Structures are given as C-alpha cells and as structure tokens.
Amino acid sequence: MALLQDNFPTFLQGFGYTLLSSLIALVGSMILGTGFAIMQIMPQKWVRKLGNIYVQIFRNIPLLVITFFFFLVVSKYVKMSGFTSGTIALMLYTSAFIAETVRAGILSIEGGQMEGARANGLTFGQAMQHIILPQAFRVALPSLGNQFINLVKNSSILAFVGGLDLMYQGNMIAANTFETFGTYMIVGVMYLIITLPLSYYIQHLERKLKQA
Amino acid sequence: MVTIGIFSAFTPQNVMYLLGGLGVTVGVSLISVVLSLIFGSVVGIIQFERLPYFSKFVGTINNVIRNLPLLLIIFFVYFALPKIGIHLPIFWATVVAMSTFESAMLAEIVRGGLESIDIGQFEGARANGLSNVQTMIYIVLPQAYKKMIPPIISQLISLVKDTSLAMGIVLSEMTYRGQIVYAQNSTYIIPVLAVITLVYFILNYGLSLVARWADRKLA
C-alpha cells in the first residue's frame, strides 16, 4: 500500500496516458477501419483489392514492428515522440481489425437493403451512410467492443518507445523500488479498471443480441 | 545511404543470426500453442459444464487474465515471480506467460465451440449408454474442435506476432535480433525492419490462408 501511496501521481499519469492513447487510437481506427471496410465491398475491383491489401498487411505483422517503424524510421523525417509514434502504430494496426469487423457487419445485412435503397434513388454513398452502416454497426458492436479491449491492452506497447503510459511507468517504478511484485499487481488492477467493465458489458450485449 | 544498407546489412553472419531468431519465434509459438490448447480446453470445458461455484471461480480468473495486456503478464512472470521463489529462464518465462494468456483466450473459443453443439448430440449419446466423460471425448469434442480450427489458427497468428513482445525481457527472438543487427549501423534500420516485416507477413499470411482453407473445407 505504501508503494501505491508513494507513487500514486506516477501511476495516475501513466493511467491517463494509456487512456489518452487508447481514445485517440480508437477514434482514428474507427474512421480508418470503416473506410477500409467500405473499400473492400466497393463495386470497383481495384478499390476492393487495395482495401484488402491494407488489411492483410497490418493484420499479419506485429504491432511492435509497426511501432518501431514509426519510432525509428518515420521520426527521422517527421519529428515525433514515442507517444505519438506508438499511438499512430496502434491506430493503423487496430484499423485493420476494425475493418474486418465492420466488413463482416456489412455483409451480414441482407442484400435487399442495398438494392431497395438504390432502387429508391439513393446513391451508393447515401445508401451506405443511411441504410447499411447503422444496421451493420449494431451487429458489429460486441466485436467492436472486443477490439477496443484489445486496443487498450495493446497500448502497453508504448512502454517500448518511452510512451509514458501505464506499462512504462510501472516498469520505471518497479526498477526504482525493486518492488516488482506489488508494482505489476497495481498496474494489472489499473488495466482491469478499464477492460473488465467493458468485457462484462460486451457479454451482456452479446446475450441481448442473441435473444433478439 | 539506404541502398548501401541493403547490400551490407545482410552478411551471411547477420542472415544466420536473424534466422536463428525466427527459430526462437516459431519455437516459442509452437510450444505455447500446444500448452494453451491443453489448458484452454480444460478451462473451456470447466466453464461449459457449469459446476456450482467452481465454474464461476475459474471463469472469473479467466476473465481477469484475458483482460490484462500480455506484456504485463510477461513482465510479471519474469520480474515478479522470482520474488515468491519461482525463477524461470527467459525462454520458459516467455512460454509460461504466453501459454497462460493464450489458454484464457482459447478457453473462450472452446466454450463457444461446445455451446454451438446441438443439445441432441448429448442426449443421443447419453441415451446410447455413454457416460458423461465418454460423451465429451467421443461425441462432442471432435465436432467442436472441427468448428474451432479457424479461430484457433487466428490465435496462433496473434501468438506469432506477440512473441515479439518478449524482447521486453530480452528474449533473443527475431525482432530483438533485428534490433541488434541495426544497432551496428543506422543505415541498416530500414532494410532490416523491412525484411523482418516480410518474414512475419509471409508466416502469418500463410497461416491465415490455411485458416480460410480449413473454414471452406469444414463448412
């Protein structure tokens, strides 16, 4: 307990940076992911291919490698901190998974919906925006929630590039106090404060969707 | 500058060093996936069976592990467990951490797979005189595993990617060895990162093709 009291501001700062990075990456990856999901079902074949290549690349390489790419290579040309490069990497990585989730959501919507909307004079974009996407997001909500949990957990990658997040601060405190056991326990509890309620809420949502 | 790096970064010695790292990556992944398949199945079955108190208890622990970052579990196993007398070498610390985390993930998949099996299968087997355990082993599990192959392969893909996290405790896997190589000369950074990316991509994309093939074959 003394450990928590002595280092409370540091833990709290780490918690704040983890939340901040997760939220920025969440908003960014939702926008990007939805964009790439739509690209993958566009009528034009080359657009579909392009969307698919993006998703396959970012799904199949480790987040850490993407982070190092931004931290070591891109930062030479565009100045950025560890926090920024980690958050950008997190956003790109997660967007590939969100694209898959949203695409599955869109595909689960009956084809007649799109045909009906088009027959009523809506353009492809309008039909997407007003008819298909609202329904697709409802279906995809539980898996989107799981992606957000993964995002929060993956934000611990910032520790590798000095991103000041919870994991990084935990490592620092553990190194300074030698109280590795207690420190990592506290860090774990702080992650669970974010992820566990989300996880139970998703289970609740899934049960509700199953009944509907 | 960059072109110079491409030619001089991949000396035979460096290539062999990186390949060794790939071996460690694959080794950790394979051992972890086998261990977590075993533990994950046990935990998944316990959760599915709804034993009073015990299943709830196991389920809660499972939820906690699933919702922690893997990196934290790796650090915990390597840096915190020695405090209570458990000393593990780096390789096995990684295997233990990854198996613990992946078991929790796979338990959910196993539970989901079991729940997707029609109740009539249980009733039919029981009516034919099979015991509970026999029903599980001979009737239900084989059907459930068939459905679980694609999600299990995608877990294997994330396992391969996640072994890179073990460089945090200086496990000598591919990403770590890449860092050692490009520490020699900063012009090596781009070519070495590119090659590492490509190797991960080929490995994981290949696995995802297997998953897609299995999905079509079993559907």
TrEMBL record, chain A:
Q: Which residues cross the membrane?
A: 20-41, 53-74, 80-99, 157-175, 181-202
Q: Which residues form a coiled coil?
A: none
ABC transmembrane type-1 domain location, by residue? 15-202
Keywords, in A-Z order: Amino-acid transport, Cell membrane, Membrane, Transmembrane, Transmembrane helix, Transport
Keyword set includes Transmembrane helix: yes
GO CC annotation: ATP-binding cassette (ABC) transporter complex
Pfam hit, one: BPD_transp_1
How is this protein situated with respect to the membrane?
Multi-pass membrane protein
The GO biological-process annotations, alphabetized, read as: amino acid transport
Q: Which InterPro entries match?
A: AA_ABC_transptr_permease_3TM, ArtM/GltK/GlnP/TcyL/YhdX-like, MetI-like, MetI-like_sf
- The reply to whether Disulfide bond figures as a keyword in the UniProt entry is no
> Which family would the database say this protein is a member of?
Belongs to the binding-protein-dependent transport system permease family.
Which NCBIfam families does this chain map to? HEQRo_perm_3TM (TIGR01726)
PANTHER family under this entry? GLUTAMINE ABC TRANSPORTER PERMEASE PROTEIN GLNM-RELATED, MEMBRANE COMPONENT OF AMINO ACID ABC TRANSPORTER
Specify the protein name. Answer: Amino acid ABC transporter permease
TrEMBL record, chain B:
Domain annotation ABC transmembrane type-1: ranges: 22-211
Signal peptide from the UniProt entry: none
Annotated TM spans: 15-43, 64-81, 188-207
Membrane topology recorded in Swiss-Prot or TrEMBL: Multi-pass membrane protein
Q: Which UniProt keywords apply?
A: Cell membrane, Membrane, Transmembrane, Transmembrane helix, Transport
Supply one GO BP term: amino acid transport
Can you say where in the cell this protein is located?
Answer: Cell membrane
Q: Which GO terms describe its cellular component?
A: ATP-binding cassette (ABC) transporter complex
Where does the protein principally reside? membrane
Q: Specify the domain of life of the species encoding this protein.
A: Bacteria
Query: Which InterPro entries does the entry link to?
Result: AA_ABC_transptr_permease_3TM, ArtM/GltK/GlnP/TcyL/YhdX-like, MetI-like, MetI-like_sf
Q: Which Pfam families match?
A: BPD_transp_1 (PF00528)
CDD domains noted in UniProt: TM_PBP2
Family named by the database record: Belongs to the binding-protein-dependent transport system permease family.
Tell me the NCBIfam families matching this sequence: HEQRo_perm_3TM
Please state what the protein is called: Amino acid ABC transporter permease
